[in-house]
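Hi W.,

Here's what went into the run:
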Amino acid sequence: MDVTWGAGVSHEIAWGGLIAIYLFLAGVAGGAFLTAALTDLLGKKGPSKVVRSGAYIAPVSIIIGLALLVFDLGRPFSFWKLLFNVNFGSVMSIGVFIISIFTALSVVYAYLIWVSSAASGKIHLTTGAAQTAASVEVRSQGLHKAVAIFGVVFAVGTATYTGFLLSAVSTNVFWSTPLLGIQGVPFLPFLFLVSALSTGLAAAMIGAFDSKDLTLYKKVDIVLIALELILLVVLYASVKPVFFGGNLATLFWLGVVLIGLLVPFVLTIYGVMRHKNLVLPVSSMVVLGGVFLRYFIVYAGQILR
Amino acid sequence: MDALAKKHYAMVIQVAKCLGCQACTVACKFQNHVPEGQYRTKTPVVGPNGTYPNVRMYFEKEACQMCQVAPCVQVCPTTASHYNEDGVVLVDVDKCVGCKYCMTACPYDARFLNKETGTADKCTFCYETRVSKGEKPACVSTCVGGALMFGDVDDPQSDVSQFLAKHKTEVRKPEFGTRPSVYYVYEGVK
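Here's what came out:
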């Protein structure tokens, strides 16, 4: 403290990089799960590479995310208190339950997909183990479908929750920006849901990059990237320009817009038209863009208040 | 705020009477064992701004504004942040996990993560240690310039009630609808 002028006005950033990455990983988990489960539910063949990739990425991603979240707590070992002291008025308190259920479903789903792959000979096992897997698969078909359907609901819940977590802070004018100025309809849940779908789909494609036909997924990705670009234009028009300037300008324009959206958008279209496999570079950029987006939103809301 | 609250404690800060001596800052550190480098209250300078003959400089005491509609209480996932029976916003250290959601919600930057406990910390109006025993908060008792008043605004006979009835006061960031219980009087400085 300066004895003449008093202690300076502190401006501590409460939520930093760990929270940004957690929000990103929760989105990827939700998006990857949706990619896998929807393909699985709507498609007719056994689990394709994309289904397996998405089903395995989801639990890994959400569990790493939760570990980061717990590590960021002032008291990491007291995280269990979140389960026993509930505040229904707090978005975070509700989110704890949504994410816990999603995590459990994603683990069960990954197991069922593994069993199903083993049964159809996509994973090499000893004859005995393959037979066991086949019998488990036959018995768990009803469960498989139920987990996929409930998982879809909770995956959407998880992805949207990450937006609601921030938008519920009504004293933060950036985070609580309404969608198109409509009072009571927050903007961030939509942006984070679209980004989650896009990054989750991209992550699932990375895991299945050598699959023969990913054209449908690429087309969906083009739509999602276009949607995200539109949402960012809406955001840009909804808040003061100061949020896109200063230290965060490079992160936003170079990281989020150029690397994360525009370049992948152009390259995906090019790849689809020319039948070129550009999945690895394009999807990696989309995923990276998702990280940049969470960093930008988390920091812009706290640096400029 | 809890409709059943028995009292409504409030603080009045007469900015023009503050000398910037920082006795409040130090008294709070003594009373509440606040860790090094962290503050439950502080009184930074504002200014000097302007040019002669319109130079302005004053000190503005900052701390928890004891909102009656507190964003921190609303967002707290474990109900650690709460209104007590006298309507004072407090943190239950046993329930707090240190998620910092309250810190993102407080528009007054009044909260910090206590380095020693890992839990959210802030001004308590010295509720447990002094006010519940009929004393004033440490900063109010020690204030050299007589800039601070404290009392129950639901009691029409209290000093603060009588003062508030006669003077024009302001609350910080009223646009957020938090209804703070800390009132600022800028007569003579603005």
